[in-house]
Amino acid sequence: MKFDQPATTNPIDQERVVTRPHTRIEGPLKVTGQAPYAYEYRLPEAPTYGFVLGAGVARGRITAIDTAAAEAAPGVLLVLTHENMPAQGASDTPVPQQEDASPQLAGPEIRHYHQAVAFVVAETFEQARAAAHLIRVTYDVTPGQFTLADTLEEGKEPDDAADSVVGDFEEAFGAAAVTVDLTYTTPDQSQAPMEPHATIAHWEGEELTVHTAHQVVHWVKRGLAMTLKVPQKNVRVISAYVGGGFGTKLLFFSDAVLSAAAARVLGRPVKTALQRPLIFNNTSHRAATIQRVRLGADHAGNLSAVGHDTWTGNLPGGDSEPACEQTKYLYAGPNRQIRTRQSELDLPPGASMRAPGEAVGMLAIEGAMDELAEKLGVDPVELRLMNDVQFDPEKGPKRPFSSRKLAQALRTGARAFGWDGRPRTPRERQEGEWLIGYGVASAFRTNLVKPSGATVRLEPGGTLTVETQMTDIGTGSYTILGQVAAEMLGLTLEQVQVRLGDSEYPASSGSGGSWGANSASAGVYAACDALRRDLAKQAGYPYADAVFRSGKVWQGAECTELSELAGKEGVSATGSMTYGDLDEQFAQAGFGAHFVEVRVNAHTAEIRVNRALSVVGAGRILNPVTARSQCLGGMTMGIGSALMEELHVDHDLGLFVNHDLGEYHVPVHADIPDMDVIFLDELDDASSPLRAKGLGELGISGVGAAVANAVYNATGVRVRDFPITLDKILAGWDD
Amino acid sequence: MTPPTAPQGAAPSEGPQPVPATLPVTLTVNGQERTLELDPRVSLLDTLREHLHLTGTKKGCDHGQCGACTVLLDGQRVLSCLTLAVMHDGQAVTTIEGLGTPDDLHPLQDAFIRHDGYQCGYCTPGQLCSSVGTLDEIARGVPSHVTADLDDVRFSADELRERLSGNLCRCAAYPNIIAAVSEVHASQNGASQNGTAQPGAAQNGVGQ
Amino acid sequence: MRAFTYERAATPQAAAGATLAEGAKFIAGGTNLLDLMKLDIERPAHLVDINRLELNAVTDTADGGLHVGALVTNTDLASHPRVRADYAVLSRAIVAGASGQIRNKATTGGNLLQRARCPYFYDTNLPCNKREPGSGCAALTGLSRPLAVIGTSDACIAQHPSDMAVALRVLDATVNTLKADGTERTLALDDFYRLPGDTPHLETTLEAGELITGVTLPPPPGGTHVYRKVRDRASYAFALVSVAAILNGRESRFAFGGVAPRPWRDPAAEKAAADAGPVARARAVIDAAFADARPTEQNAFKVPLLRRTLSAVLEEHSTTGGQK
After folding, report:
1. What number of other Cβ atoms are within 10 A of residue C222's Cβ?
2. What digits encode the pLDDT tens for the residues C228-276?
3. Which CATH class is domain B23-99?
């Protein structure tokens, strides 16, 4: 099916199963430890264990690698290095690719710290780990560029974040009655999913099966095939349960490539999980940014000039961190200049982390809006309402938003949070040792859809099976896709079985960019649509008249049991959804508002979040249980980015030094209060037949700015260098 | 600071390592006695996952920094990654598989489902085992960082948040986990009790 | 983790004897040693498991103090009725550290011996004089924000990570040991811990085979006991700074954590401005105790933070009856 016209009435609108708060159908497996993650499959043949050794320098060349002691160590079966690695597909960038060759141990060149330099396979994990530490590597070290701030002059306009220039920004900014000109920095951050990147690879003849932790099955299937130089049809990927991704599992890394290569050499299964201290430098991360925001407004607060410049860096060939993308859409203003500049750095590869761009870009633009509101003397909620716009500000009214409930979100949130009761001036409210502050920010995340397919099979007995490559990385795919299929066929959720994450099933959007639930649901919708047509035809009813309800297909008062139509063999149909140009006709994005109350210790400047509310307009909420959890997760990661998350760069040695979960701080239970989410009633006709929009990244996009604005309200200190740690507050307090 | 020029890795003079002798270890795992011959280097976590194929216990960091590997050792929650199996010969281990099964859920497992106390599910077994241990510790009067009076340990949401802080959840199901555990605590202690620790009121809830 | 041989010691004396050999180490809770062994930072050839020794009792001493066996877990020590009643600063410090799971396993002796959390120490590729003498200290010019500000040297600026030890220091606790030759020693904490100097790899004055058998607490000091820890997240993080205080008017005592290679205490400085209000007294105490501080640019905030933290402690308890 092709979705190229806005949605009209369809079976999903019944909302008998979809939109209902169903708990996760895979829940009983997860809470009992029965759900198998990549590393946990048991094969008929005993596995061997792989261990990746990471480079000890950031940039240079291996001049010698002595593996003799490792090879002689007990239990060792194989040591792979660049000297004996089997032939691989080539890549012209050191950055791992989504669905192209991403060779490992490809040569003596070291392009980033902890890049794989050797791979040890042994009979046991303990043997492989011990042997890896016996490998001796000698490097010719090359100086590298590890400091973004030193590269600002060299930045180039990246392919993935084009300049948006409208009117004459400089003139308008110069002429504006009230302006702010602010520079923000955001650090490198780590996705840090709880499940490490992990793979089991085994070959049967020329056929490879990998169980691997990944977000998009068909990407890793193609990428591995290209890397290993085997036909795609010979590669099967299983990724049925994924212990979190947050972007890093959009790519495939040394665990997958080296396990597969070694398993082929050895003729035995190889299983490898990247050790946690390797993950931070070996895999991907969100790259640091330096951002300059300039806003010009009249005395009332109407924006006349909107400027946002981002500088970011990556290895050559890597993506940008497009931190000013949201500024193209968020607020009105006739004169606009929004630019990203990317330079080359020799740090580990930057790539997607939850809400690439917005997650850190919103920290800047929404902080600047708060400062502008203060300068104008207007309520920051009012300033945002004043500059709301129902069309793409760059393209004009000819490109309206498909749906945009920013204003409603701000008003609803202000009411629910008690915004009127906020402290109006910094340091106004103190309770005991604690200064209390309120902050607000808009939420924005671009809506994306991707082609996606599925097979649905009406089983003998009348139950339904859904099969798709779609993954569930905690997002609720199992449940949501079951709900969509149940709705389409007039069944209960209990009558639907969902199988995910196997490349034997139809290709799917996978999970990323908040496109998963909407896109994969549309794929299941398409497959169900095909099945419904088949079944109606079998029943002898015109499709236009056929109604699927209660396990039957009806034409008026006449009906046929689906179990009868299933027969002994069952009936299956495969379908997929592709998209026309509605995303060009309409600007599409999720909108919302974040409200946060913090307390800051008046002595020590320790910052804690007292409460937080997100109001979310993201189209149809397919399952409010899983949707709420996605929002809470995004809010928490956003609180982390505001207050604690930072990969510390050693600017001499060129690595992220705090490369473990002890020193890379993510929020713990005690950091997170009870939080609220309000979903606005919204249907987006231009997004998909589900009328849903992306949700998983909206929670993180803006909440950190609300935290920062609340911290200012509490303390009187503006910290524009994230994360806002207590030392930065103390620096702003006179001692 | 200039980059190091010394080679990475061990000095070659260290030579090959001795083959460690395996040692017999008997553990009572989820009520069942299991005897293994183990390399002394094998952590309790890898014993469970790789030797007993009880993969419900998760390896998130292998360094005591995430809590995903939490199990109950003689009834107390510990990190199975930071201890060796050989150190626990003769002791009893309860894992997530021993708490309940899909057809016979532990009350906490059931509450996690109803409150959506998870997303990806990878930290979940650790959160659950830690919750079992935590409720027992509160019942036994073990104080925490947020306990106001060291001699009067009372259940509260803040106590849970502090005590479960060794269990990271990157999906951040934190509020839902607190809701789930609070509900189970309330149902096990009844509305009449004020939550004060009572001697002998331990709510272990571990099915062995 | 290198291969090692393993034995379970039957008596403290046997344990000490078995650990005399080059490369032998005691293992108790294992929560720090195994972490380091996995990273190839610790490479013992022989592990002597002392967990089943009878060193897990808390007993009253003749003078009204308390003896804590080396194998008493952090949880059991923090929960012990006499510790709660008479040495609350110790309970408070212990529960401010690590996580419940770790405290259930970590022991009193092991906690004292936990090694530095400097990220450069934790990565065998990086220069670190503590791990690899003579390789240099990358922290001096790298990430030093979490590290020590006083008692450091040009060779090492790592801080001691223990919370428990800070409370023991303010309590004037002593460490009891047994040597392989059967002799016993009692060491004040300042004699137990070395400062890094030119030999940051040597962290204590323990000799080969010398086993910590316990810790002795002097008779209860009275006063109001407070442990206040400041960190980057609300829990499960090492201290940026911490204050262990026994508040007793002019006789108040303070020890400081997160700022030095060992729990830091300056008894002379405790007397400074003892009659002044909280802010002035905190300033005087910290100015005196940290006159020799040599912070880096990144961790210079620790001294004013410590002053503010101490001020908060004094202020809170000058008005209230104090907490246990």
Report:
1. 11
2. 999 999 999 999 999 999 999 999 999 999 999 999 999 999 999 999 9
3. alpha beta
